[in-house]
Structures are given as structure tokens and as C-alpha cells.
Amino acid sequence: MRPVARINASRLFSTAATRRAAQPFFAQEPSAPSVQTAIPGPKNQAAAKDLLEVFDIRSLNLLADYEKSIGNYIVDLDGNTYLDVYAQIASIPVGYNNPHLAAAATSPEMVRALIDRPALGNFPSADWSHILRTGLLKAAPKGMNQVFTALAGSDANETAYKAAFMYRRQQERGGSEVDFTEEEMQSVMVNQGPGSPQMSVLSFKSGFHGRLFGSLSTTRSKPIHKLDIPAFDWPAAPFPSLKYPLEEHAKENAEEEQRCLQETERIIKEFHNPVAAVVVEPIQSEGGDNHASPAFFQGLRDITKRNNVLFIVDEVQTGVGATGKLWAHDHWNLSTPPDMVTFSKKAQAAGYYYNNPALRPNKPYRQFNTWLGDPARAILFRAIYEEIQSKNLVENTALTGDYLYNGLETLAKKYPQAIQNLRGKGQGTFIAWDSPNRDEFLAKAKTVGVNIGGSGVSAVRLRPMLIFQKHHADLLLEKLETLISA
């Protein structure tokens, strides 16, 4: 791509001396990326060939040396060191080889959780309440005081859906005290009503909520995720398609959001399988980093309340500080909290938060599996949250995000064809833009020492860790400018 006018990076961004003067969270981090071989290098190629014999590697990005990776930097088998702004698909929160997490991982408490992993529903450890109260519940979204732990993001959403369906049927029966009828118990064994009712969860076009059966039926991002898999007959509402910059299209965007809200309420009222819950991402991540305003989500909350439909916010990718708030829905100033908030990724644990006791099923074993999550992961999350609190990492992400966005905005003005529809202003480091040659751009980024990801068809998405600082942003901006102007 030919440059319009090459940016003088030494003037626009901080100099190397300024970067060295910054106070890093990881003192042992490299000062900059380093690429020593072709990408992939010979050792990576040989290891990939060996792995292919026993494991499907068609989605392989790179084979990493996690012993040498540190902080914001991931190292491959050939010694190439990349500034990692993809962070294991947004799931590494506080850096590779974080010493505080290492201490938690080698504690006697962790050893017990790993070697005597309990079936939590039947045999929780005596300290399970303490582990939850000092970690997951300490970080709970406002208005929520209970948690159901799960194994992964898809599982978190599936169990939240189950809770919504059971809650809805309990309401229809007249309360949790009313028992099941004989007809319900007989019909459910042949997958028929009334025991197996025709209900639904409404999701949004381009949304992503996981790859298990129930969660996959609410995923609408790419056909490849869903092909050949039987799906539930559940509805999809339009998600706002906003125009950027937002401040230049305020009227059009408000009209678009209102159109989507009206259509959502129409579907809830008219869809042939009654809607028990609405699930939405604060930012549609896999679907292309699609945003909506707080007013849109406030409208959704109002719609769900007046139609007696539960409101589930999927914070699997946005949660735990990535948007400059601990939970992305904190940006919305809702009149009442969501009914459930699902989480995973940066939490290194999974599940959903809630408050209403009626969301607990009326009988045991209805919301159940052997593990019900993993106490080892809950212990790790507690250490992650301690790091976040002690180092003010949510505030750091908000400030670094503003700084990075401003730098990208400057690049976008110089190279409007290369950086299109820049989005994520005021959303921490949860930033994206559209690239006309996205896949080629992602591949070339590695050649200058940047590991970066994509979403949707054309979006480049940034998912740096919470320890990403301004000197890292300077490096990233310089590398991006090099790529764009090459």
C-alpha cells in the first residue's frame, strides 16, 4: 500500500528513550519485538509437522515457547519475539509468566485443588465458600451476589440459558413450590411438550456466544461455526450497524438503534417459540467488533423488563477490565442490573453471575455436572483480581486505551484507506478497524514483531493485556505505521 505521506514516528510517537523511561509492570520484558527468521521459522515448521500427525493444526497461528514468553511478549520456537496484542484471543489478563499468578499456582491450596479436583455439586472443599467470596464474588458486577461456576464461555452461556428456561416455566406453573405434572415427566423423556417446551433465547445477528449446541443456536457470526449442526428454532434480531466516526453520524445512528430496538420488541411479542431471555454482547467481538451506544442497551433492558424476559449480558470477551471498566456493561448506566452476566476468558474461570434467588432451580441436579467449574481456576482468578486491584489495571487500560485510540486516529487520518471505521473510543484497549486486505495485514504484522488478530470479515481487532502501557502503544503505533506505509 502506498503512503499518502509517511508519518515521522519519532515526532508523532514517543521516542525509544521515552519508552525506556516508562515504569513497566514487567521489568524483564524485552524493550521491543525482535524477528530473527522467516515466519514461520524452521523450528516452528518442524514442530507443526510433528504436531499435525496427532492434532488438527489448520487453525494454527504459531507454536509458542511459554517458558521464554513474558509480560506482553510471546516468543515462538525460533526465538522470534512478538508484542502480543491478541493475548490468546483476549484471554491472558496480566501477562505471561506473571509472578503473582505463579505463586498462586504453586500454593498448597492450588495443589489440593488440582490433584483432588472435587465434584463441586456433591463434594465441595471446606474452603469453597471462602475461595468464591475472596475472588469471583469480590469482582461481581454491581447488583449481583451469587455465581454459578462453569468450564468455559460456551458452557457459561448454556447454563445461563437453562436457568432462564427453568425460571420461565416455574413462573408459568405459579412458583417454585409447584411440582411437575405426570404429563410433563412422561413427555420430556421423548423430547415432547409440555415437559420439553417450545421456548427460545433471542440473540442478535453477527453475535457470537459459543460453539456448544445451545450457545451455537445463538451464534450468528460466521457460517463455518454452524454448518452441519442441528439448531434450535430461535430468533435473531438486528444489531445496530453504526457509521463512524460516531460523532459525525449521531442522528443516523440513533435512528438505526431505534429501528433495531423496535424490531427486537416485535420479535419478542410475535415469535412462535416464546422468548425466555435475550442475550447480547456489549461489543460483538467475533462478528466484527460491532458497537452500540449505552442508549441502545438501556432500551434493551427496558424492553426485557416490560415483556418479562430475562436479560443476559455475555461478557465472556469484554469482561474483567478490557474496556476500561471491570465489566463493559458498567458503561451503560442501566436502570436495573442485567439478570445474568456470563464470563470467561480473562477471568481464566467461567460461569454466570446473578442476584435473583428464583434463578436457582427448584430441585437439585437440574443445573449440574460433575465438575461445575474448577476450584483451581477460581483460585487463579482470585490472584488475577488481586493483580488488577493492586496495580490499578482497569484504570491503566482506560488511560492506555485513550492514548492508543488517539494515535490510531492520527494514523487513520493519514492513511484513510488502510484504517477504516476506527472504533472503540472510550472503550479501553478494546479497539478495532476495518482493513481492505485484512488477512494479508495480519500475516505481515508478524514480520515486524506484532501478534494481532482479526474479527468478522474485515476487522483488525486489538486485544492487548491489562498490563499494556503507553510505551507498548508507542511501539505498536510505530509498527503499524511501518506496515501501512511499506
TrEMBL record:
Regions annotated as coiled coil: none
Catalytic activity of the protein: 4-aminobutanoate + 2-oxoglutarate = succinate semialdehyde + L-glutamate
GO term, biological process aspect, one: gamma-aminobutyric acid catabolic process
Keyword rRNA-binding: no
One annotated GO molecular function: 4-aminobutyrate:2-oxoglutarate transaminase activity
Gene Ontology terms: cellular component: cytosol; mitochondrion
PROSITE patterns named among the record's database cross-references: AA_TRANSFER_CLASS_3 (PS00600)
CDD domains linked: OAT_like (cd00610)
Record family assignment: Belongs to the class-III pyridoxal-phosphate-dependent aminotransferase family.
Protein name: 4-aminobutyrate aminotransferase
Organism: Talaromyces atroroseus
Lineage: Eukaryota, Fungi, Dikarya, Ascomycota, Pezizomycotina
